[in-house]
Amino acid sequence: MKRYKVAVIEGDGIGREVVPEGIRVLEAAGRAFDISFSWQHFDWSCDRFLKTGHMMPADGLDQLRPFDAIYLGAIGSPGVPDHVSLWGLLIPIRRGFQQYVNLRPCKLLPGIWTPLKNFPPGHIDFCIVRENNEGEYSEAGGRMFRNTSAETVIQETVFTRMGCDRVMRFAFELAMKRNRHVTSATKSNGLVYTMPFWDERFAAIKKEYPDVKTDQYHIDILTAHFVRHPDWFDVVVGSNLFGDILSDLGAGVVGSMGLAPSGNLNPEREFPSMFEPVHGSAPDIAGKHIANPIAQIWSGAMMIRHLGASDAADAIEAAITKILAVSDVRTPDIGGNATTQDLGEAIASQVAAAGSKEAQLRSTAHNQ
Ligand code: NAI
Ligand code: MG
Question: pLDDT tens, 239-255?
Answer without folding.
Answer: 999 999 999 999 999 98
